[in-house]
């Protein structure tokens, strides 16, 4: 199997690449075992990003380029790709600050990728990282698969449009797509130079565990929908194994997620290491709510129900301690070992 | 006031042009009277379409061109336009039969129009003809403003995307947009060479009243959401007078409409002329349901509620006889007089 990952320099993208190289793709629809990767093409940022790690694997080919470059996407997709994981795009804060750039990458870039797939003889499977930012405006207490999209950001608008396009291209057989709406993914293991909203939440986990103090920009009683990076990667991988026949009116779904209060998230990060016998000092959290960030987070759905994801067998973290433990196992203890 | 109408060759577009030239735009937000048109630019099909009628009015300028031609749209919008009525685009059947053309006109053409508005110093108001085809898949009995979009056609997908784009451009102040989702509009007064789904429904009104027999391609008990051409035009015109402050999470809304069964529509057309004292013979209806058309119509919402349109004061036909009478007054008796 030949897999293409766009946005492979990101923290989800790089973890997905590692997982796919180790575990392959899920088994086929008849219950066969996982299918190993024979080739992995990684589309990285033009400057290459954090690309060194997997370069020793002979199956891996790294290409640096823009996720909106149609000619490049044509070439990559035409090269016998079986599955595309489309994670490339600008982040929420960037799409809001630079409208033209967000439109170019998140809308026109996706359209070029879909057209590259449509014009091939054999249509690849496409797994797309959507976002809960597609929701916005007045929302019910629990957002289920039937809830409308009235996004209140340009990023969310572009993500909602992506769902519509991928569902239509799939209905017509031009691609075999599926879209997973991701909540806040906990957490980037490395500090970012230009933190996104979700990284500002992620910092509440990453920084104290790295022994650094952190300012919490949200009210303690704010609700957040979160998922571990491992759950997000595993759900993206699992979606690549779902047969097209499992979908009906749409290819898009919510990833079920934990809904937690910021206070609870901070407390768990502060108390869990002691239970594990840690003696290292933890960074401390101080509180300075940021009204702009609070407004963005307050506009997100707080609780999700996703009948479709449940029916497809997507599973996520059992609890907040489970989620934090997964972060510690993957990024703190392994680094310390 | 300078108004641009794209798709002005269509039957809605041409009636809208006539209405605007006669009645102007709705009064301003402070309750001032209607504002007269000083200029009307009509964008017609490249072949000019049905363009002759209004050409004698010195306020009217007719331009023939493609609704997806970005350079042309730039020129037209830059020419001091106050309000754009965006009715140009491919029809449902065309967008489904020719995917690339539908995408080019209905998606890229709209994007070019929005970009032309964004890059101007003073952003125009934009009124866009949306469609109930944006709905599809499993739907509740009554479709209200909170219902999600899972369109089951490429046309519907493009219309749903248009709503998202126009809402986001408006939120950012790049344009002052509003989208009206139209149901089946009754009816084109002239027979079409390539009938659309909505014209095949319209023919059930037009043909018998013109003395011609017609084949009904739908089951007698099918439900249809319909509106008169006059109501649709008046609602589009009214939306141009609504202040931007009346909108919240979205700029899109359902036009409230009548829900009628095909049997009732046919019976009203057959009996209403006698009540008006007609002696002319009516065309007869024979029944030959077409499974493909039945599937399309069966996928539409059957009943609508639109709290937003109601709040904005949009009104439509009071009853089916009222709707049919409006058609007769406008297109049959006036032609016979």
Automatic annotation (TrEMBL), chains A, B:
Segments crossing the lipid bilayer: none
Annotated SUPFAM superfamilies: NAD(P)-binding Rossmann-fold domains (SSF51735)
Span of domain NAD-dependent epimerase/dehydratase: 3-216
Pfam families: Epimerase
Keywords for the protein's UniProt record, in alphabetical order: Carbohydrate metabolism, NADP
Keyword Hydrolase carried by entry: no
InterPro entries: Epimerase_deHydtase, NAD(P)-bd_dom_sf
Record carries keyword Oxidoreductase: no
Protein name per its UniProtKB record: Nucleoside-diphosphate-sugar epimerases
Organism: Piscinibacter sakaiensis (Ideonella sakaiensis)
């Amino acid at each position: 199997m030949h897999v293409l990952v766009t946005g492979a320099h990101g923290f989800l993208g790089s973890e997905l690449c590692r997982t796919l190289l180790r575990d392959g793709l899920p088994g086929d629809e008849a219950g066969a075992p996982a299918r190993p990767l024979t080739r992995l093409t990684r589309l990285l940022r033009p400057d290459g990003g954090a690309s060194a790690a997997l370069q020793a694997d002979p199956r891996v080919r790294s290409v640096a380029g823009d996720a909106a470059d149609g000619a490049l996407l044509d070439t990559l997709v035409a090269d016998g790709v079986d599955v595309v994981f489309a994670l490339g795009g600008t982040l929420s804060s960037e799409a809001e600050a630079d409208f033209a750039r967000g439109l170019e990458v998140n809308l026109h870039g996706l359209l070029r990728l879909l057209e590259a797939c449509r014009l091939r003889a054999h249509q690849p499977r496409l797994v797309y990282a959507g976002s809960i930012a597609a929701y916005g405006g007045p929302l019910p207490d629990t957002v289920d698969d039937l809830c409308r999209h009235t996004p209140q950001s340009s990023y969310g608008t572009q993500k909602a449009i992506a769902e519509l396009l991928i569902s239509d291209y799939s209905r017509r057989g031009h691609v075999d797509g599926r879209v997973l709406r991701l909540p806040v993914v906990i957490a980037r293991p490395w500090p970012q130079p230009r933190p996104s909203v979700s990284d500002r939440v992620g910092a509440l986990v990453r920084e104290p565990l790295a022994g650094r103090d952190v300012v919490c920009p949200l009210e303690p009683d704010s609700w957040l929908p979160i998922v571990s990076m491992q759950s997000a990667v595993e759900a993206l991988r699992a979606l690549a194994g779902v047969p097209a026949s499992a979908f009906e009116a749409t290819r898009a779904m919510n990833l079920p997620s934990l809904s937690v209060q910021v206070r609870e998230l901070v407390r768990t990060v502060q108390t869990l290491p002691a239970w594990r016998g840690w003696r290292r000092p933890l960074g401390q959290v101080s509180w300075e709510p940021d009204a702009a960030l609070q407004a963005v987070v307050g506009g997100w759905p707080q609780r999700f129900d996703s009948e479709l994801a449940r029916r497809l067998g997507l599973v996520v973290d059992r609890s907040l301690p489970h989620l934090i433990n997964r972060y510690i196992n993957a990024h703190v203890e392994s680094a310390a070992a």
